[in-house]
Specification:
Strand order of the largest sheet: 6-8-7-12-13-11-9-10
CATH architecture: Alpha-Beta Complex
Shape: globular
Number of domains: 1
Largest sheet: 8 strands, mixed
Structural class: alpha+beta
CATH superfamily: Amidase signature (AS) domain
Number of strands: 13
Strand content: 5-15%
Length: 511
Amino acid sequence: MSSILAEYDQYDGLGLAQLVRSGEVSAEELLDTALERVAQINPSINAITTKMEAQARAQIARGIGDGPFAGVPFLIKDLLSAVEGVPMSTGSAFTKDYVPRYDSEIVLRWRRAGFVAFAKTNAPEFGLVPTTEPAAFGATRNPWNLEHTAGGSSGGSGAAVAAGIVPIASANDGGGSIRIPAACNGLVGLKPTRGRTPLGPESTDPWMGNVVDHVVSRSVRDCAAVLDATAGPDPGAPNSPPPPARPYLEEIGAPPGRLRIAFTRTPLIATTYAPQVVRALEETVALLESLGHELVEAKPAVDGAAFAAAFLKLISAETAADIEYFTRLQARKPRKGQLELATRGLQKVGYVLSAVDLSNAVRTLRFQGRIVGRFMADYDVFLTPTLALPPVKLGTLLPTASEARGLQTLIALPIGKLFVRSGQLDKTALKVYEFVDGTPIANVTGAPAISLPLAWNEGGLPLGMMFSARYGDEATLIRLAAQLEVAKPWFDRRPPLARRAREAAAASHAR
């Protein structure tokens, strides 16, 4: 085995692609190494749901092209991103056998960039919760501590990248699903501007246009280069933000200038930030000041309770619509036990809501987004902790036994309005906001936001810091992220699983 393969996870995606271009390693060797890592690591973290080895080898045989990531192993989140002929489970027993007959536009762009996709990653059912614990596939575990969540809904991708299976993996974000797993796993996670990357050809702009596709990665330059390879509307896209002034990769190393950065020690929606999260925030503020930026303690006057209630209504309506959509695609209804309890609760709320209820919820969200937009007129960047808490233990965000009994009873009742008035689902949802706090706000505004791994707690779990910019201004975030990556490097920090995999590869090479 080549010594390069033993050092596989010491390279980011662009670094591996350069090795392929120089002839030091082949695409086949990289794929074999990634598959070895899956065999070594995945039984511990459960990040992979569906293998695509045959498709990957066929792609290499056809030729990997000359894209910026030619020959780099890649994983695709098993939600929204359709691969022709490969099951797309959407994290659900109801849809686990659904096989798309087309490739999503972003999948085509990843392939043109040279990525070799060889498996799909675990996600919660319909991407509804910020932890990856689907009943159909089991929990994905955090490589930094296997008792804790890897986040969601791109938790499988986040865990796989952190553990060293691949340097980059696909992710999408409708309420924080790129940034949450980035924070939980010690990665870079950029949610681009609404419409920056394609969702077609068959997606109908999920969650009222709040969803956007991108990746999680270990380096900022990989994040930027992937966005260069995938950005731009596809035919029929309803949103098309202004194009960047230059390639995002050229922002790496470019001086960000003296930025005016707002920050807050108090949450936007949650009750409080954990003390260790506040300490990490204060360390980040001090670091930014040492780099010459102006820091101002301020936050937008978001009505957190109104936002949370309205967002829950929107997700409920979209969940009911998703289940109907897959019912039509598969020509069958969900059988008993094929949908999780919380999903069924959201579905019932979706059926009970009137068109007026949904319209009012969307108006509330848009109004709160306008508040944030006006606030950002005075600042280049807004800094908050990505999450109000460190990565929680598995099971924490799922319904408790008493909550489950209440949900089951209310779902069974024929009077739907009673279910909504009971507030049972709202109570379950509020637990989620005590963890994620303000990540959904950037989805509603459509503005870009990035989570960076700038701290770890005493227990060795990552704590992400989130930077939000004005609509269309990914460039400022990438310049600032690259500056912070140099000032406080994180790339060589590895969870125990990744270190053991590297040692095993080195021992194999020595033999």
